[in-house]
Amino acid sequence: MFQGLLIEKDEAGYRTSLQSIDETLLPQTDVSVDVQYSTLNYKDALAITGKSPVVRQFPLIPGIDLIGTVTRSDCSHFSVGDTVLLNGFGVGEVHSGGLAQKANLNSDWLIKLPSGFSPRQAMAIGTAGYTAMLCVMALEKHGVTPEHGPVLVTGGNGGVGSFAISLLASLGYTVVASTGRVDQADYLKKLGATEIIDRAELSEPGRPLGKERWAGAVDSVGSHTLANVCATTRYGGCVAACGLAQGYDLPATVMPFILRGVTLAGVDSVMRPLADREQAWQRLAEVLDVSLLDDIVQEITLAEAIPAAEKLLAGQIRGRVVVNTNK
Question: DSSP characters for 90-156?
Answer without folding.
Answer: TBTTTB--SSBSEEEE-GGG-EEPPTT--HHHHHHHHHHHHHHHHHHHHHHHTT--GGG--EEESST
